[in-house]
Amino acid sequence: MQAPLITDAQRAQLLANGRQSRENPDFDPPPVVKLFTPDAGATWLLTEIDPDDEARCFGLCDLGLGCPEMGWADPPEIEALRGPLRLPVERDLYFRAGKPLSGYAREARLAGRIVT
Question: Could you tell me the residue ranges of all domains in the chain?
Answer without folding.
Answer: 8-111
